[in-house]
Structure formats: C-alpha cells, structure tokens
Write a structure and sequence with these properties.
The structure is a homotetramer of 285-residue chains.
Chain A: E1 3-11, H1 16-26, E2 30-39, E3 44-52, H2 63-70, E4 78-83, E5 89-94, H3 99-110, E6 116-122, H4 128-132, E7 137-140, H5 148-161, E8 166-169, H6 178-183, E9 188-192, H7 204-211, E10 215-222, E11 232-239, H8 246-269, E12 273-276, E13 279-282
Parallel strand pairs in A: 5-6, 5-8, 6-7, 8-9
Antiparallel strand pairs in A: 1-3, 1-4, 2-3, 9-10, 10-11, 12-13
C-alpha cells in the first residue's frame, strides 16, 4: 500500500483544486487525503494531496517532473512529491538528559511512532546503556571548540552509514554549524525547553521562574542557523504557580518536551509539514 | 461578495474531489475553501467547498439541484447548498442566568459574531433590562406543564415574526417538546454545563464536586429529543481542585460555558457544521 | 461578617506558623484560611492568614501595628493587614476595544465579581454608551503628548472623586507616566495581549502570526514603569494553527484576555496577591 | 534529612492551626510545609504539616500517639503520621500495553520519580524483556476465572517478598478482588483511559469516538471495589476532532495516561494525598 504525497504552494488563483485533483484522477490515483489552505495576508495557496499508487500509471521517479510539466508550471506552483517507502530512519542526538531519548525509543519500539531508530549520537558517554539496551547503535562523538568541524564530519559519516533521513536533537546541548544545518535543511528537529520566542537561549526554566510566569512551555522546530528561530512545528504548555521551584518547572517541562517533540517527529515523518517563509503549515492538525 | 457553500457526504470512492472541484470551476466558481475528510471506520467521505458567486453562472436557487443532477447523483452524494446571504438572525432563549446572554449580545454588538439578535425569549422577567438596553426585543413567555404546547406555539410565532433561523438556548431551563425540536432540527444549539456525557442531567456542578473530579467542562450541542444526547459541536474544560467549592465550579464553569457556546454559534452561522449519525464534522477546526 | 487578612514575608525560620496562628487565636480570631509557602531558592517565607473579626479583640486600625510589635518584629517580618470592608471600587480605563470592558461590567453586574465599578475613563468617546447603559459614569479624557500631565491630574481627581482603589487597564492604549504608576503602585492591573515575555510591546498578534507560533496567550500584570515588565498575576493560552489569520488570533485572543483579566481582578480584590521581587504569590490558586 | 508528615481532618473550629503548629514547634520541629483547607459544604478541616525531624524530640514510632493524646483528641481530629524513610517501593501490574510501564520505569531510573520499582507483575509474558532490561524482576502470574484467588495469593506473596507498599495498575486488564483491594486500601492506583465518570467501563476510546466528543481524557484513581468509582487523584485531557479516528484517540490518550498516572504516583509517594468521603485532597497541587 504505497502512497504518493504532493505538496504545493503558489499564488492563489481560480482552478487550483480542480487542476490538481483532476490530474491525479486522470492518471489513476485515488485521493485519500486532500487539504488546502489559503493564507489571506499573502494570497498564497498551500495544498497537500495524498493518493494510493496502486493503480497509478506514472512511475515513482517521474511523478514530480510530470506533475510540474503538465500542471504545476502553468500555475507557477512550487511542487514537491514524496513517495512513501517504508519507515523513515531517524538518528537521535543527545547529551546527558535521558527523558526525550527514552520516550522516543519507547514510542518507536511500541509502534506508536512508525520510524526506525538505528543510531544515537552523543557528546557524552552517559546514555550509552539506555540506547544499547534498545538495540540501537550508540556513538560517542566528543565535541570541543577545536574539533567541531571534524566532529561534524564524523557525525555526517555516521548518518550516511546508517541511512538516516532525519536528525532529532533530543536536548542535545551542542550548536550545529551553519554548514551542517544547511546540508540538513528541514531535516533537523530540535526541542527547545521554552515557549518560544519567550526565553530563547540558555536556562529558560530559570529565567521563567525569575520572571514569575504562570505558564511554561516547550517548542519543537526545525533547526536553522539562527538559533531558536527556526520554523515552529509544535508547542505545548503547562500551568505553574508561585509554589513551583525551578526544579518543578524542569519536571513539569519535561512532560511537555516529550509530547511536543514526539508530535513534531510524527508530523514530519508522516510528511505533513510544509515550510514557507519561516513558518510551517502542518496539514492534518 | 456572496459565497456558496456546498456540503457533501457519501460513500468514499475515487474521483470525488476532482468531480466536485471541476464542476465548480467549469461553472465559473473560484474555490476559496475546500476541505475533505474520510471517516475510515465507515468509509464515508465528507466535504465542504466554499466559492465566490461573483462570476458563477448558475442562479442561486438552482445550484443545489444542478449539482445533484450533474455530479452528486452519480456518486450517491448527499449534497446541500447554502448561499450566504447577509447576517444570520438568531433568537436567544434564557431563564434567569445572564452570563451567556450578555456574552452573546456583546459579541454580536462588537461584530465578533457576525449575527443579528432581534429577539430574546424567557420564561422569566428578570433579564428584560439586560436585553432591552441592547435594543433587543424581550418576550416573556411563561411555561408551565399545562400551557407548554400553547407557549411553544407562541414562541414559534415570535421566531417567525422576527425571521429567526437559529435558536440558542443560553442556560434556558425548560425542555422543548419533541415536536418543536423536530421542526427546528439542527437549528437549536444548547449549552450544557458539564463535560458530556459525564453528569448529563441536572445539577452537574454539584455532582462533579461530590465525585471529586479534577477537571470540569461544558458542552454545546444541537438539541434533540434525547436530552443531552444531541450532536456535540464544541467542548471546553477548566481545572479544579479540592480547594474549589461548588460555587467555584459554577464560577469557573461559566467562563467555559461562554466560550464554548460562542464557538458553537460561530461554527454554525459560518456554515461549517455537518451532522452525520449523531456526530458533527466541524470544518475549519 | 468582616474579615482581616494578613500578608507576611520574611526570612524562613522555625516557629513562624505557630507564632502567627497563636497570636490570632489568642486575640479571639478564628482562622478561616491559612496558606504558607517557602521559596527554596531564597529561603523566603510567604504567608496569608484570613480570620473573622467577629470576636476579635483588637480594633481594626490597630491590628497591623499590634501584630508587628507583638510578633512580626521579632521575626523580621514584612507584614501588611487588610480589613475587608465592603466591595472594592474599581475604575476601568479603555480606548476603543469593548470586549474586556463589557465582560468586566457584566461580571460586576451579575455578582460574579464582587466589586463596584463607578467609573470608566477613556481617551475616546466610542464606549460611552456601553458604559452608561450599565449606569456607570463615563469620562472622556483625551490624551496627547502635550497634555499628558494635565490629563493624568484630571484622571487622578476623577479616581479620588469616585473613591476608586484599583485601576484596571482594559486594553487602554495610552502609557501612564512613571509618577502616576508609582502613586498607584500595585493598584493598576493591565492586560497585555500576548504570552509575556513573548511579544512584549506593540502588535503582538501580528508578530505571533509572523513567527508562526502554535499557541497564543494573554497576560494580566501590575503596571509598572518598565512597560510589560510588571509582576504577572495570571496568564492564559489558546491553540492556533496555520489556518488562523491574524484576525483569528485577535478573536481567539480576546477570549483569553477576558478570562485572564477577570481572574487577576478577582485575585487582587479578594486580597490574595502578594508582590515580592517582581513576582507575585497568588494565594488560593 | 528525615521529615514527618501529619494529615489531619476534623470538624472545623477555632484554634486548629495554632494547636497543631504550636505542638510541632514545642517539640523541636521546624515546619517546612503547612497547608490547610476547609470544605465549606461540610465544615470539615483538612490539614497537612511536614516538618524536619532533625531536632525533633519525639521518637518516630511515638509521634502519632503523642499527637493524638496531646492535641488531636481534644479537637476530635482524625490524625495520621508518616515518617519519610527512604524511597517508596512500588510494584507495577501490566497486561500487554507498554506505554505506562516504560514511562514509569524511565522516570524512576532518571530520578524524576523518587521511587524504587523492584517488581513488575503481568498476566502476560510480553513485557518481560522491557522490564528485565531495567533490572526489574518480572513475574508472570496468569489469571483465569478459576485460579483468581490463588493468583492473588501469589501476587500478595510477591508484594511481600519485595517489600512493596504501593501497587500501580498500569493498564492492567484484570479486576482485582474486593478482598485484595480492601487489604490494599488507598495503596492501589489505577489509570483509566477516560475522563471519568464519562465512559466508565470498557473501550472508552471507542465510545468517545462514537459519541463524537471533542475532548478525551484519562483518570488516575485509587482502586476500590466499585469499579472506576475510586477517589480521583489526577485527570488530564486532550483535544480531538472529527478528523481523529479511534486509533488517533488511543494515541493521543496515551500521552495523557502517562502524564496523569505519573502525577498520581508522585502525589501519593510524596505523601500529599488524603482521602475523605470518596474524594481526595491533593495537598501542594
């Protein structure tokens, strides 16, 4: 049961839905999900269509090109096609905090997340056992100011060797270089332990406590060169009060981080996220 | 800027999106919103399309019939067309509690809800001033076990006289007859002060307190003959604790009731609600 | 049924609860509410005690002084006593947006908020009718860069004339001077239409939309000289998605603003808020 | 740093706070947490005091008795004392679903929950590996209608052998006997996958979907003979829509279940829960 997924964005105009859906149908595709959205401020049309390839008459590798020539170009569409083939392979980068790692591994193992996790990368040794007992390769890649470029080369070769298509920064406390992030654009998801843009940067729970906020949050986003500024995929919040010490904020925040990061990984690996002008369209949400 | 809105539900099959969108486009309609949803348990296709009538070549009164003959019947579609004409006119039924009434009147007055409220009906006199100072006609229709049928006739004639198309029960403490509700099917919205189906029936806040729940809620739904069983349009919740007395539940619940009722009225009057097998599809939510 | 309310904060040490509660009891007070909290980071003790004055043997005006001499000074307590006398009188400052104003007036009228609202002040004329039909005096005080000092003198004299003890800025779009705010310290509550500290300053909904956040919020806080930096009393949030235009954020935000502002006014007027180092302790929450 | 925790409930009257806090202080205790609450409907006083035993002059085993004789009896107090000694030992009962089990094991391992988990009991074999790789003993105790009494004897002996003081039913699909539950009164915590009292009983997510609710939830409660009727400790909710199939409700519900169950275990093991008339007082929440 293989499916094709088509993302489109273009200037809004008449006939877009009909043009796309007719082309899919004319080529033997049965649409299973169809969602469109018009951003009224910019008159931009966004669309996601998913159809079964069972009786589709175009070869996988030709779909995107044929669509562009036969439909997209006439409407100035920016079009991208995914063919859903098996479970996405993700690598998890961690430092010393285990809660997001163990959560993702448990979700992958139970089938709650339809992904394979072949690789955990860390700049510390401490989460080796947690990873290996799930049968996941654990690679310790120490990172210092001096060796950073070489460390990233090593990380890249590990990602290649394990056939990874998505990197999840599960409270990884190192900053990836601009080069790495450009190479992995829209394929690195980070969890930030604050309700961005509030408390961007370091020690957000301490600063949230000092400021006396009554709600804290967490934010999952694509990592970009501009730290904590990448397109937001999911956010969550928890209520706090004056009774909560920083340690309580940390604890409550962990529950939010886990859920929000898993939600982002799920949306990405189900091919439901489109990025445009620094913002996400998360179809089906 | 008049729009047509088409609701469809039918057995799911290939070609539905293309068939509908092509027909709209071929007749000069520019689709502004298009949303489809397939219920996988029952393989039922649900759809809502909204398009501008500016250049549409079919007269308003013919759209539904033409669509059925030219598209719908071939796919066994259940199809319904609304032509959006001006602000819906709603009547608010109340007893003695003012919070939902004042909230709806304020939203209508400020334009937050795009509706007209020509009429308030109550089985008590106490909210006359609140209504009249908004320039809304207030009609006192006492209801007793004996006069119920006559009271409903009177209510019906008031609704007719004011050209009302939607009745909102804003904590109206009388039960409408099955006859009335059948005549006004899917056109009477009630707010129940509990998180249905929990605490259906009377005094839900007292029972929630006695049971020691940690979250309370409110539910807006279409009123049906089966009390508190109608299709749910919107629900909301609030956190409570052992510190909250029944009076605190009542107070916190009011904030939920106001928001949830307004949300339901907005969804209905924006023609975004489709009812099927006792459940709602609320498009655009 | 008059009550006394005692707020205490001081360095934490042994015997504080016993010292306070014994003194109240020894003077004939029956404690109805007692709440303490220790901030572990700074070892600061916070306390609120409320007791019935029915059989209390100290005259109202002497309570604070007697408590300090007999208990507080020995423990280096910062102590403050309120004697609850009737309904607090509040003034509402507005500009042109009505939603918080109508909400507060409705809550006061229905008794949901136990306050009197004798006065609405605005730098525009547009909300006169809304105010006056509730029997509330409406005073139009235009504010310009030139007349600001005189305008504030006028506002101050209006507050004096109406015996106001709390000013609520219900989307009032003028900045009050440092002098005014110092004179009214911890007696001016503002509602900011963002989840502070995110999007402090102007046009928060536009900026939240541009940033692509998935949750928006509102914040009620004591107004201080440092704009949008005052102690936070209450916050609330609402979920948004890519489907929401700026106008949807504005609409959803209004529901949060109303509830959050009313919650702050209630907490303040029930004498449950203590401010310490720019943060609030909101007892009973 | 050992602490004593005292729970009190009794008819409300004057002098209770002073009596308790003075007694603690007079015996050398330094109160670290003190919380009282009066249920106004029944005029019942609830209290929790926690103090350091460092300089306390009464032996652990005498505290409760001495308090009763010297303070409690004079006020008709129902009093109970815990002396906090090390990490509580809990057993987790499961069937085949892993998500609550893996979550609790990860929290215990990371220190997020200050408990020891020496034992997992299951009526199936499938979660053996998950348990054993955390170094936790896994005991397979099959349960049938015929062997139920013997199975419970076996379970009891396992609990004894491992020094367990709290049993957590982490989606355990067997009903424990009244005898077992009476013996373990207020020491068995269950997670029910609905927002009780809605959808008590079996298959709540299916029934929630059929009813078309817009919010689902989960409930942790002490297990009692009356199925799904035990005192509620914590509840949580998640928003759903018509787009969510039953499988989506199950998935979203799991996130709520995990958090709500962990919250209840934490509240119980921190000695913050008092049960009275079928309801809980959860201090510090």
């Amino acid at each position: 049961m293989r499916n094709a997924i088509l993302f489109v964005h273009c200037p809004d105009r008449s006939g877009l839905v009909a043009a796309v859906s007719s082309w899919i149908g004319a080529n033997g595709g049965n649409i299973e999900h169809f969602e469109q959205h018009v951003d009224e401020e910019t008159s931009t049309f966004f669309m996601r269509a998913e159809w079964s390839l069972e009786a589709f008459r175009i070869a996988d590798e030709d779909i995107e090109d044929r669509f562009r020539r036969e439909v997209g170009d006439a409407f100035a569409m920016n079009a991208r096609v995914h063919v859903d083939g098996g479970r996405p392979r993700i690598a998890i980068f961690v430092s010393t905090l285990s809660h997001c790692l163990t959560d993702l591994l448990a979700r992958a193992e139970s089938g709650e997340l339809a992904v394979d996790v072949p690789l955990v990368v860390s700049n510390h040794e401490s989460l080796r056992e947690v990873s290996e007992r799930h049968g996941v390769a654990f690679e310790h890649v120490p990172v210092t100011a001096e060796n950073k470029a070489r460390a990233e080369e090593h990380q890249q070769s590990l990602l290649d060797a394990h056939g990874v298509e998505l990197v999840v920064l599960a409270r990884y406390m190192q900053i990836l270089s601009a080069d790495f992030l450009v190479a992995w654009q829209e394929r690195v998801i980070n969890i930030h332990h604050s309700f961005l843009p509030a408390f961007a940067g370091a020690r957000p729970y301490h600063r949230a406590h000092a400021r006396g906020v009554k709600i804290i949050g967490a934010t999952s986003h694509y990592a970009t060169e501009d730290l904590d500024e990448g397109p937001i995929i999911a956010q969550g919040v928890a209520t706090v009060s004056h009774r909560d010490a920083v340690s309580d904020l940390v604890r409550k925040g962990r529950d939010v981080e886990r859920v929000v990061l898993a939600e982002a990984v799920r949306a990405h690996t189900e091919r439901r996220v489109l990025v445009h002008h620094g913002r996400t369209v998360v179809f089906g949400s």
